[in-house]
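Lab notebook, design round three. We kept the backbone fixed and only want residue identities now. Task for the bench partner: fill in a sequence for the structure below.
Input structure tokens:
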């Protein structure tokens, strides 16, 4: 039996690094330190790092961390054999989550390694690891209680607790003080709101003048309302059950503040505010006559009752004779059809199949295929060199060539592993599970209804006689549907409400 050639590079173990820092007492820089020491550990222990998973400002007390979950999924692909963590508490601070997730990794042939903690092999190592996990969990809970206690103690001293308020700033001893740069601007918001100026007018003017909220974003209706309701502007300090008046330098007087509260109450109980004027089909609904968008509209009767409609833009410009339609009737019709669809197992199966086809089509495998092709070439070349060595042709050139090929093969394998990690695909079962879970949504919740519409509905064309054509985007293509496509659908023996093929029609609505 031939002996293997000497000085052949040892195969490096493919590994990934998982790093995390929480938001309490740690900074972005702690990630850099973890990665550096994990890379050093890999180098010393014959490992090659092919990927990094990083969760920033996320607690270890739960495993609901995006990159952590991605790392667990990728472990099923078999492209790495080790997960390196800086310390045990980076992986988990909950012993039950730790046990379950370590079991998942072990089942996939992946082991855990810690750069700064040596865990011995054997039963003693398992016991030691369990004990250390218990301490990590205790530390996490204790830290949480200490942080909360620290906040409460700071609140008793009327400190700022890291909050930001326009017009106020943190003093050197962590108390609130007037910010001379921004405080003069704040009474204006209160004065305009108390005078009945619409919030939209106020925030539009502030944005146009280049002003920003305390977080650096643009003003909107909600940010204006939060400001005029914030009692800090009249000197009140609040934290949980702590409330101290005149503890903060006041920016507006109490009379102006109370006038704003009365205006808020007036807006809240005004007829226009009694109904949420959310138009579900905005940007989705089109006129079957002229193809123009149909937009939300309202009108008030002689009795003071407000009615809501969808009106064709062409009709508004006197270029189309399509009459407006009641909002409630139309939206309910669309939602009923969408709910009927997602409660159909055949439809869910069809969507899942189309999603899988779309993923396969959209996934760019060109780089992966090129690497795999090169890997086959290298394997053939190595076989040829080994055949020459076995035939007795052993020269400095053959030895050098073999070392070169083995080194390139290792680089190609790392590249293939990286491609597999960088381009994860959803499994068919995951898609089906997600879609079927939508059946349990609250149909009185506008957020849920909007999600249904955005997910499944490409466009709706409304004709006379309540004829409705709904075109779905479940094929994965989200291009704008033209009026001609809708007309072609009607010509294809579709009467009443219809769906894009291959969904069959359900008759007129």
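Proposed sequence:
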């Amino acid at each position: 039996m031939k002996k293997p050639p000497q000085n052949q590079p040892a195969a490096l173990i493919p590994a990934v690094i998982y790093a995390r820092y929480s938001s309490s007492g740690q900074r972005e820089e702690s990630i850099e330190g973890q990665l550096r020491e994990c890379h050093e550990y890999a180098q010393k222990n014959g490992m090659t790092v092919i990927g990094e998973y990083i969760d920033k400002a996320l607690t270890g007390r739960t495993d609901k961390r995006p990159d952590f979950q991605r790392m667990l999924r990728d472990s099923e692909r078999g492209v790495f054999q080790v997960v390196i963590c800086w310390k045990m508490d980076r992986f988990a601070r909950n012993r039950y989550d730790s046990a379950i997730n370590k079991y998942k990794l072990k089942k996939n042939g992946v082991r855990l390694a810690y750069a700064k903690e040596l865990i011995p092999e054997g039963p003693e190592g398992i016991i030691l690891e369990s004990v250390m996990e218990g301490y990590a969990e205790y530390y996490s809970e204790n830290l949480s209680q200490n942080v909360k206690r620290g906040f409460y103690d700071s609140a008793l001293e009327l400190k700022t607790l890291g909050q930001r308020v326009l017009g106020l700033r943190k003093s050197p001893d962590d108390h609130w003080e007037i910010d001379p740069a921004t405080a003069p601007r704040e009474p204006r918001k209160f004065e305009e709101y108390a005078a009945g100026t619409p919030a939209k007018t106020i925030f539009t003017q502030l944005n146009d003048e280049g002003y920003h909220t305390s977080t650096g974003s643009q003003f909107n209706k909600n940010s204006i309302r939060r400001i005029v309701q914030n009692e800090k502007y009249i000197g009140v300090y609040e934290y949980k059950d702590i409330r101290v008046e005149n503890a903060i330098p006041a920016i507006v007087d109490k009379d102006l503040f109370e006038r704003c509260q009365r205006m808020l109450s007036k807006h809240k109980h005004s007829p226009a505010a009694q109904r949420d004027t959310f138009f579900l089909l905005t940007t989705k609904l089109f006129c079957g006559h002229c193809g123009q968008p149909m937009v939300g509209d309202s009108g008030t009767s002689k009795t003071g009752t407000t009615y809501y409609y969808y009106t064709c833009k062409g009709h508004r410009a006197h270029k189309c004779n399509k009459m407006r339609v009641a909002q409630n009737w139309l939206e309910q019709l669309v939602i009923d059809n969408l709910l009927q669809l997602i409660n159909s197992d055949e439809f869910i199966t069809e969507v899942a199949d189309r999603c899988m086809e779309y993923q396969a089509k959209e996934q760019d495998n060109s780089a992966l295929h090129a690497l795999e092709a090169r890997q086959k070439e290298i394997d053939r070349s190595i076989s040829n060199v080994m055949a020459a060595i076995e035939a007795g042709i052993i020269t400095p050139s053959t030895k050098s060539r073999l070392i070169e090929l083995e080194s390139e093969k290792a680089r190609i394998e790392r590249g293939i592993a990286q491609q597999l990690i960088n381009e994860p695909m959803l499994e068919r079962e995951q898609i089906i599970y997600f879609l079927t879970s939508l059946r349990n949504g609250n149909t009185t919740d506008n957020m849920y209804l909007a999600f249904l519409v955005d997910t499944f509905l490409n466009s709706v064309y409304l004709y006379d006689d309540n004829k409705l054509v709904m075109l779905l985007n479940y094929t994965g293509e989200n291009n704008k549907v033209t009026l001609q496509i809708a007309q072609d659908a009607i010509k294809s023996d579709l009467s009443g409400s219809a769906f894009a093929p291959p969904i069959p029609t359900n008759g007129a609505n």
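Keep this in mind before ordering anything: DSSP finds 17 helices and 14 strands in the chain.
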